[in-house]
Amino acid sequence: MFISFFYHLREAGLPVSLQEWLALTEALDRGLCAPSLLEFYHLCRSVLVKSEGDYDKFDMAFAAYFDGIGTSGEIPEEVWGWLNGKGKTKEELRDRMDPMNTADYDLEKLRDMLKERLEEQKSRHAGGSYWIGTGGTSVLGHSGYADVGVRVGGESRYKNALQVARQRDYRDFREDNIIDPRQFQLAFRRLRQFSTRIEGPKTELDIDATVRKTCDAGGNLRLVFDHPRKNTIKLLLLFDAGGSMLSYSRLCSALFQAVDKSNHFKDLKVYYFHNCVYEHLYKTPRCRRGDWVDTDWVLKNYGSEYRVVFVGDASMSDDELLRKGGCCLVGLYNEIPGIQWLHRIRDRYSHQIWLNPIEDTLWDFVFGSHSIKLVRQVFPMYELSVKGLETGIRKLLVSR
User: Fold this and answer.
1) What letter would DSSP give residue 126?
2) CB atoms within 10 A of CB 84
3) Cα separation of 228 and 195, whole Å?
4) Are 196 and 267 in contact (CB under 8 A)?
5) Are 390 and 187 spatial neighbours (Cβ–Cβ below 8 Å)?
6) 3-state DSSP assignment of residue 220
7) 372: pLDDT confidence band, cut at 50, 70 and 90?
8) What is the DSSP track for 79-125?
9) Model confidence pLDDT, tens digit, residues 192-243
10) Among residues 225, 226, 224, which one has the least CA distance to residue 196?
């Protein structure tokens, strides 16, 4: 039966190798795990999971295999707020604990109770035996004294592996998540590996090599140094602004701030367009008439060594992309169709990608799917997720 857990993890999308599985069984044979599901959980994760991006997948697969629990619904923000306050102390509760509150609740009943309380409860609650709260003897909430129940936030008093797995602390590290502002900075740190080592003294501490050498030396510290890195990447960043991109404006703003604060670029130029590039590129996301530079000027003054990143949903009418006069901004008339401008940019710069905030599984079905398809024929397009951004950056910076 144990081998079925191996196949269960593989079916969940975890790249568990046979060698890693044999290492786990060897660890069990050597007694490296106490007879505790919690310790087994940590041992499995340590041996079988190679990337923090897979932690959440592992947590969900572990919980499903050992208890058959499906993904629970999201807990409303106000409930988290109620649970952030301090509960009553054990001394205060000692005389109020209900000796009858020791029912052997099954999981299904507890889940139904949680759903019912979420619908009923309108305010924070501390102590007691009924509401979702802190302290008390309720089977819902945290920091209380019930022997069984569903913990919502906080720290467990009676830990078990399923509670740890169900927390999904690593959901934000998943590489298939749509990227959010907290992850941009982390994603762009990965660009550091693409910077160039410069000749000269080895003055930069190599963390990975230091860890390896220290482990090889049985824990005795062995410092390893390498040549320092030099930023050589020049980036031209083009944002679609307004219209259908309004719903992604905060996301794009966070991306801009992350790029702007990054020290991985020798030079960074940022311009804006609305739906498609025409004769002008705007200096601000407001796309105001006259507050622009000529697109031809950009192509002539920024050399072919620049990497180009488009950020936009590529969703527009066919006229905007394929026709003269397709520009939808009042008072402006484009003599050259937008698709030709995209081809000019592609021909000028050999390294370019398009990041699309729309989930890639929807590209063939959303409004503007035809224009998305046409743009994808010009530029490599990636979803604006952690995995999509990383894949796009690798494409963008690969030597040709």
Assistant:
1) B
2) 11
3) 10
4) no
5) yes
6) coil
7) very high
8) HHHHHTS----HHHHTTT--TT------HHHHHHHHHHHHHH--S--
9) 555 566 667 888 888 889 999 999 998 899 999 987 776 777 889 999 988 8
10) 226
